[in-house]
Write a structure and sequence with these properties.
This protein is an all-alpha fold and 547 residues long. It has a domain at 294-542. It has 21 helices and no strands.
C-alpha cells in the first residue's frame, strides 16, 4: 500500500506505565507486611486486655516500663501504658519502624539502581517519557505500594476496636495506618536518592542502610538519655515516633516528614534527569588494576559480587546486638523492680528467669528476625541471577547447575554461621561494657541457637527456588512475616498450639533466657538440609525461568 501514511497515536496510559510497573512488582511484599502489622496491632490490644484486667495491674505495668532505659531505646518511648491505646502504640510502632525500614532499603535499591543495571530502565526511556519523569513515576509506584500498608493497618486496628472494651475509632485506626507509612516512605525516598548517587545496587543499599542506622541510633539515644531527648526530634525515625498514634496524637510531626520526603524526593528526581543512563554522582573508576583471583570459579565470583552486601548486614547486626545489649543493666533493674514486667517478658521464654537474661533474650529474638531477613535477601539474589539471565552466561561454559547452586548455598551457610557468631559476640561485648554480661560460652550457645530458624528458612527457600522459583521472594517474606506474627501473638496469651506450630520461631528456645534445646536445633537443621537437598535436585532438572 504505497503512498499510505499511517498515523502513530500515543499509547493510552503510557504516562504512568513506570508507576504501574513498579507498583505491581512491589505491592505483594507490602501487602504481606501490612497484614502482619495490622494483625500485631489487633493482637496487642486484645492480649493486653486479657493479661492486665484491672486498673491496678495496668498501673503497675506502666510504672515498670515507663522509665526502662533499655526497652525505651529498643522499642520507643511509652506514653500512657496504663491504657490499651498507649500500650498498643508503644508495642507496635517500634516493630513497624524496624521491619518497614528494612523492607524499604531492599526495595528502593532494587527498583532504581537494580532495574537500571538490568537494562529495563533503558527500555522505559526509549518510550514516551524522560529520565526525570520515569524517576518520579517510580517513586509514586513505591508510595502506592506503601498505601497497601496504610489500608491493612487501618483495617486491623479498626477491626480490633469492635472487641469489647477496646473501642478504636476509624479516626484512630486511620491515624495509626498513617504512622505505619512514615518510616517506609522516608527510607524509600532516601533509597531513591542513594541510587542516583551510588553506581551499584549494593552501594545504594549500603548508603540507605547507613542513613537508617544513624537515624535509628539517634532515636534510641534520645529515648534512653533524658538530657539528650532532643535527638528524637533530629532523627527522621524520631519524627515518626513523635506522631504518637492512638494516644496524645501530634499530627504536626507530619510536617517535617512531608517536607523531608518532598525535598529528598525532588532531589532524587532532579539528579536522575541530569545524569547519563548508567552513570552516578559517585561513579565507578574508569580503570583499575585487574584482579582475577576471585573470577576463576562461580563460587569465587559470587563471593566477589556479594561480599560487600554481606559485610554490611553482618556489621549492622553486630552493631545492633552490641548497642542494645549495652542497655542490659538498666533494663534488668527495671524488670527486677516489677514482678508483672518480669512475667510479661518471661512469657516469651516460657517461665520467669534472671532479669538480665530476659532482656538479652528479647535482643536475640530481634536478632533472629534480622537473620531471617538476611537469608531472604541472599536467596532472592540467587533467584534474581536466574530471572535476569545472569546465570545463562555461566551455564554456557563448563559449569554445572548443581555445582553453581551448591556454591551459592555454601555462601549462604557461611553467612548464617557468621551472623550467629556476630550476634553472640555483639551481645557479649555490649553486656560486658556495663559489667552485667553472661559468659561468652553462654552467649555463643545463644548465637548457635539463633542459627536454627535461619537454616530452616534457607532450606525452605531452596525448595521454593527449585520447584516454583517465581514464588521464592513472596514465599520467604510470607514465612518470615507469619512466623514473627505468631511469635508476637504467642507472647500475649494462649494461642491455639496448631497455629503456633506453624511459626519457625516457636520451637526454638529463647536463649539465653533458657538453655538451647539442642534436639530441636538438630531437627531444624536436619529439616532445612532435607528441604534444601530436594530443591537442589529439582533445580538440576528443571528449565531456567527468566522473567
Amino acid at each position: 500500500m504505497s503512498g499510505q501514511v499511517v498515523a502513530l497515536r500515543p499509547v493510552r496510559g503510557a504516562s504512568n506505565v513506570v508507576a504501574r510497573f513498579v507498583f505491581k512488582r512491589t505491592v505483594r511484599i507490602a501487602v504481606i507486611w501490612g497484614y502482619v502489622f495490622g494483625a500485631v496491632i489487633a493482637s496487642s490490644a486484645i492480649g493486653y486486655m486479657g493479661i492486665y484486667k484491672t486498673l491496678l495491674d495496668r498501673e503497675k505495668f506502666a510504672a515498670s516500663f515507663s522509665s526502662n532505659v533499655g526497652i525505651n531505646a529498643l522499642i520507643g518511648a511509652p506514653h500512657h501504658l496504663e491504657t490499651i491505646n498507649g500500650f498498643t502504640a508503644w508495642r507496635t510502632m517500634g516493630i513497624m519502624i524496624l521491619i518497614g525500614s528494612i523492607w524499604a532499603i531492599l526495595t528502593a535499591s532494587k527498583t532504581f539502581r537494580g532495574e537500571e543495571s538490568a537494562g529495563r530502565w533503558e527500555m522505559f526511556l526509549v518510550g514516551q517519557t524522560t529520565a526525570r519523569r520515569a524517576a518520579l513515576q517510580a517513586l509514586l509506584g513505591l508510595y502506592a505500594s506503601v498505601l497497601a500498608i496504610f489500608v491493612l493497618v487501618t483495617i486491623g486496628a479498626y477491626a480490633a476496636g469492635f472487641y469489647h472494651g477496646i473501642g478504636f475509632t476509624l479516626q484512630n485506626a486511620a491515624y495509626m495506618g498513617l504512622a505505619a507509612m512514615g518510616a517506609p516512605i522516608i527510607i524509600l525516598t532516601v533509597g531513591a536518592l542513594a541510587s542516583q548517587i551510588q553506581p551499584t545496587r549494593q552501594r545504594a543499599a549500603g548508603m540507605t542502610a547507613a542513613f537508617f542506622g544513624a537515624a535509628f541510633l539517634l532515636r534510641a539515644i534520645g529515648n534512653a538519655v533524658d538530657s539528650l531527648h532532643w535527638l528524637v526530634g533530629v532523627s527522621p525515625l524520631g519524627w515518626v515516633e513523635q506522631l504518637r498514634p492512638l494516644t496524645g496524637s501530634q499530627p504536626l510531626w507530619l510536617v517535617p516528614i512531608v517536607l523531608f520526603v518532598v525535598i529528598v524526593g525532588a532531589a532524587a528526581v532532579h539528579v536522575a534527569g541530569k545524569r547519563d543512563l548508567g552513570a552516578s554522582i559517585l561513579p565507578d573508576r574508569d580503570s583499575a588494576v585487574a584482579r582475577l583471583g576471585l573470577l576463576k570459579s562461580p563460587l569465587r565470583l559470587a563471593w566477589r559480587l556479594g561480599r560487600v552486601q554481606l559485610a554490611a548486614w553482618l556489621l549492622g547486626l553486630m552493631i545492633f546486638a552490641t548497642g542494645f545489649s549495652s542497655l542490659t543493666k538498666a533494663a534488668a533493674d527495671a524488670i527486677k523492680a516489677s514482678p508483672g514486667a518480669e512475667q510479661a517478658f518471661a512469657r516469651l521464654g516460657g517461665a520467669p528467669h534472671v532479669a538480665a537474661t530476659i532482656f538479652l533474650g528479647v535482643v536475640f529474638l530481634m536478632g533472629m528476625t534480622i537473620m531471617l531477613l538476611l537469608v531472604t535477601a541472599l536467596l532472592n539474589a540467587l533467584r534474581e541471577d536466574e530471572a535476569e539471565g545472569y546465570l545463562d552466561n555461566l551455564l554456557v561454559r563448563p559449569v554445572s547447575r548443581g555445582g553453581w547452586l551448591a556454591g551459592r548455598l555454601l555462601l549462604i551457610a557461611v553467612a548464617i554461621v557468621a551472623a550467629g557468631l556476630f550476634v553472640a559476640t555483639g551481645g557479649w561485648i555490649g553486656s560486658h561494657l556495663v559489667h552485667n554480661g553472661l559468659p561468652y560460652g553462654t552467649m555463643l550457645q545463644a548465637g548457635l541457637n539463633a542459627m536454627a530458624p535461619a537454616t530452616l528458612l534457607a532450606g525452605t527457600g531452596v525448595l521454593l527456588f527449585g520447584f516454583v522459583p517465581r514464588f521464592t521472594a513472596i514465599g520467604l517474606y510470607a514465612i518470615v512475616g507469619w512466623s514473627f506474627l505468631m511469635d508476637m501473638l504467642g507472647s500475649l496469651g494462649n494461642l491455639n498450639h496448631w497455629l503456633l506450630d506453624t511459626s519457625i520461631l516457636h520451637h526454638v528456645a529463647l536463649a539465653p533466657v533458657v538453655s538451647p534445646n539442642w534436639q530441636e536445633v538438630s531437627v531444624y537443621v536436619s529439616l532445612g538440609l532435607l528441604l534444601g537437598t530436594a530443591g537442589w535436585l529439582n533445580f538440576t532438572r528443571r528449565d531456567l525461568q527468566n522473567e
